[in-house]
């Protein structure tokens, strides 16, 4: 049994860029004086030159980014402290100031890979039997910095997959502080090793739900006997850093889905937001929302984090806590099982395990699902996206890593009520990198972050060589019948 290939293909497009804030010298200490010097040069430039350059900047950027003026204004405000209080800045000067601290970044300049698939929020304009799907993608750019992008496709009634045209009108979201619950914040502090008498005093003064501003107010109200102690700075700063790790990301509702780009925002994801695994989650009351886990990387450490969204326009991003949320590759179940949130994970780095949570934020280990068994998974294995519910059990696409760091795809079938019980599995890979598929940004890799079932067919977009996305399919009944019980 192998997966059937289709002609649909997405390749990395180096012309897809976002304009983002940029400091000279990469933010090093010496850049502080350079910022002031650059501001002074812009403000001393003759009016005619400023106006002509500002117009050229906006004209150039608008071809790729419709909100160019807003981006320039925001980046100018970021260095506004360098302006003299009595200096009135013209509109053209503000554009030029913003442009001086803006750089274009090719979000997939190096590679495009690791798609996850979900039902698209809109099914308008389709013929009978068709399904529109949304995909999240991992774009890799300069410095191996990863971002989360989106695309869409239509699965036709006759069994073809067609990608929609991807927009070059790219945009980054507006960022605002996120909200915390008190138990989740306490668990996150505990996991960070930052629970002290100071943090306990702050926790006692916080409401059950709070934001960064309310945390700052509570910190200011600490008794001086606590706040002024030499050893109080570290736990107070740790609370600020943990609180700041949650945020909201809001795009314009009229922005194209394929133009929305989520780049690193907070410190723990500064070197990449990787491998989002999206699923349309159904709550017990029937309400649905998109949920995803992704890997945050700061250059030294990794951490699984959570994304939630009702519409793929506005997103909540949060830290996960607990012993079940410590490694790459968490994948959420699409509904509660036995009244509990479940996720497939890989807490030991090489074995598929199960994690459980009461609130979807704090996760505890809940048993082993499957250990490396075959030679093609001898080094490690993990899931390739959220489990898919079938009448016979939870269908899980897996990846195994074998000799020469070769990634291959397989599958498991798990019991619906007890997902630690494996009903069946594939003995041989469903897909392995052969021939030209061995080549890419990272050789010998086929990898997916989630497929989707439509009309009895399991559709699996796959990142090949960590450089391009190809599409495969297999009949669900045919796949289940081929698996070893």
Key terms:
485 residues, Tachylectin-2, Chain A, 6-stranded antiparallel β-sheet, 5-stranded antiparallel β-sheet
Tell me what you see in this structure:
- Helices cover 21% and strands 34% of the residues.
- Helix 1 packs antiparallel against helix 4, helix 2 packs across helix 4 and helix 3 crosses helix 4.
- The radius of gyration is 24 Å and the shape is globular.
- The model has no long low-confidence stretch (mean pLDDT 93).
Q: Structurally, how many domains make up the residues? A: 3
Which value, in Å, is the CA radius of gyration?
24 Å
Here the CATH topology of the largest domain equals: Tachylectin-2, Chain A
According to CATH, the homologous superfamily of the largest domain is: Glycosyl hydrolase domain, family 43
Question: How many strand units?
Answer: 28
The coarse silhouette is: globular
Pick out the low-confidence regions. Answer: none
CATH class of the largest domain: Mainly Beta
Major sheet description: 6 strands, antiparallel
Query: Judging by the overall fold, what is the CATH architecture of the largest domain?
Result: 5 Propeller
Strand order of the largest sheet: 8-11-15-14-13-12
Given helix and strand content, the structural type is alpha+beta
Tell me the distance between the termini: 15 Å
SS field, number of helical segments? 10
């Amino acid at each position: 049994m192998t997966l059937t290939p289709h002609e649909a293909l997405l390749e990395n497009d180096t012309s897809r860029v976002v304009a983002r804030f940029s400091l000279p010298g990469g933010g090093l200490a010496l850049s502080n004086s350079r910022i002031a010097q650059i501001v002074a040069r812009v403000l001393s430039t003759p009016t005619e030159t400023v106006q002509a350059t500002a117009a050229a900047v906006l004209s150039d950027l608008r071809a790729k980014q419709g909100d160019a003026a807003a981006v320039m204004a925001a980046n100018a405000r970021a260095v506004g402290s360098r302006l003299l209080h009595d200096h009135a800045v013209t509109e053209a000067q503000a554009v030029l100031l913003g442009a001086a601290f803006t750089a274009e970044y090719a979000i997939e300049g190096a590679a495009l890979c690791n798609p996850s698939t979900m039902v698209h929020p809109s099914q308008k304009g389709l013929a009978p039997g068709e399904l529109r799907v949304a995909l999240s993608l991992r774009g890799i750019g300069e410095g191996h910095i990863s971002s989360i992008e989106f695309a869409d496709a239509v699965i036709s009634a006759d069994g073809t997959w067609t990608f929609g045209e991807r927009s070059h009108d790219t945009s980054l979201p507006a960022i605002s502080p996120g909200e915390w619950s008190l138990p989740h914040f306490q668990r996150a502090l505990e996991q960070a090793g930052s629970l002290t008498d100071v943090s306990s005093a702050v926790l006692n003064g916080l409401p059950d739900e709070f934001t960064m501003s309310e945390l700052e107010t509570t910190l200011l109200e600490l008794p001086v006997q606590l706040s002024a102690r030499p050893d109080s700075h570290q736990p107070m700063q740790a609370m600020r850093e943990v609180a700041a790790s949650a945020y909201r990301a809001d795009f314009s509702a009229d922005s194209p889905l394929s133009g929305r780009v989520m780049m690193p925002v907070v410190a723990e994801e500064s070197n990449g937001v990787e491998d989002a695994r999206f699923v349309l989650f159904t709550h017990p009351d029937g309400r649905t929302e998109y949920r995803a886990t992704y890997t945050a990387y700061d250059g030294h450490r990794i951490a699984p984090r959570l994304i939630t969204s009702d519409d793929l326009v506005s997103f909540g991003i949060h830290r996960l806590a607990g012993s079940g949320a410590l490694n790459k590759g968490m994948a959420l179940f699409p509904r509660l099982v036995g009244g509990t949130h479940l996720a497939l994970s890989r807490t030991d780095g090489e074995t598929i395990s199960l994690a459980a949570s009461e609130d979807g934020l704090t996760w505890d280990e809940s048993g082993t699902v499957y250990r490396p068994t075959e030679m093609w998974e001898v080094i490690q294995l993990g899931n390739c996206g959220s489990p898919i519910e079938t009448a016979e059990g939870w269908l899980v696409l897996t990846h195994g890593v074998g000799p020469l760091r070769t990634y291959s795809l397989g599958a498991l079938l798990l019991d619906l009520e007890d997902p630690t019980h494996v009903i069946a599995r594939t003995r041989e890979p469903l897909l392995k990198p052969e021939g030209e598929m061995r080549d890419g940004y990272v050789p010998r890799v086929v990898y997916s972050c989630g497929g989707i079932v439509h009309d009895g067919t399991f559709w699996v977009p796959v990142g090949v060589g960590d450089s391009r996305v190809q599409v495969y399919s297999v009949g669900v009944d045919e796949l289940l019948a081929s698996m070893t019980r």
